[in-house]
Amino acid sequence: MSVALAPGLIHHPGFLDAEARGTLAGQVAAVLAEAPPFTPTMPRTGKPFSVRMSNAGPLGWVSDRSGYRYQSLHPETGRPWPPMPAVAFTAWAALSGYPDPPEACLINLYAPGTRMGLHQDRDEADLAAPVLSLSLGAPALFRYGGLRRGDPTRSVRLMPGDALVIGGPARLIHHGIDRIFSDGDLLSGAEAVLPGLPLSGRCNLTLRRVTCAAVA
Ligand code: MD6
Ligand code: FE
After folding, report:
1. Which domains are present in the chain?
2. Separation of 206 CA from ligand 2 center, angstroms?
3. CA 168 – CA 69 distance, rounded (Å)
């Protein structure tokens, strides 16, 4: 079952069942053991994000005083990012509608009370590919708007196991996370603690194509 929230913005509630969520959580824990979460900082100001991050796959998204970019090495360990979780890779094949495999898997870790401000994902050279998001752990309130920052917004609750595809005419919409629901919120299906991960709260994976395929 899937729901078009807007043209190009497709929500797949419960895409990962409990078994797949458990497998993915274990695969994410293995990535984090090799590529520990880091705290990105804002370009120019150096203000820390409240969300911690890591990456898997050939390229990882990082942010520091010099800007946002993709790079092949962890900013603190200097080692390559680990391979992408297999469950995430399979989800891309099923949902992206894109012929080539993802190049980057950004892992966002939200402790209770953290949020992510309204932003666009536009650091990728290939905007023909969608971004695929997979959610684990605590539910979150996802806000989405339009191509202009001031456009009206709506919100949808992302539950553990939900997939969200942002592509086509929605590829550059503004979006963010307003709220992580905690233990006290008593939502059915909530998993307040992520098994195997060094954090309670929420984990979101976003899979992306970064580079444009070479023109033959
Ligand atoms: C999050 N997601 O769900 C933040 N970006 O934690 C994103 O920023 C996002 O869900 C691009 C495409 C899908 C997303
Ligand atoms: Fe985003």
Report:
1. 3-208 (2.60.120.590)
2. 8
3. 22
The pTM for the full model equals 0.93
For the record, the structure tokens of 155 come out as 């919100």
**Residue pLDDT, tens place only, 10-66:** 999 999 999 999 999 999 999 999 999 999 999 989 999 999 999 999 999 999 999
Report the atom number in ligand 1 closest to the C-alpha of 131. 12
- Give percent of the chain with pLDDT exceeding 90: 83
Ligand 1 residue neighbourhood (C-beta within 6 Å):
108, 116, 121, 131, 133, 142, 164, 166, 175, 177, 204, 206
Number of Cβ atoms within 10 Å of the Cβ of 94:
11
Please name the residue whose Cα sits nearest to atom 3 of ligand 1: 204
Rounded distance from Cα 206 to ligand 1 centre (Å): 6
Among the listed residues 61, 66, 57, the one whose alpha carbon sits nearest the alpha carbon of residue 38:
61
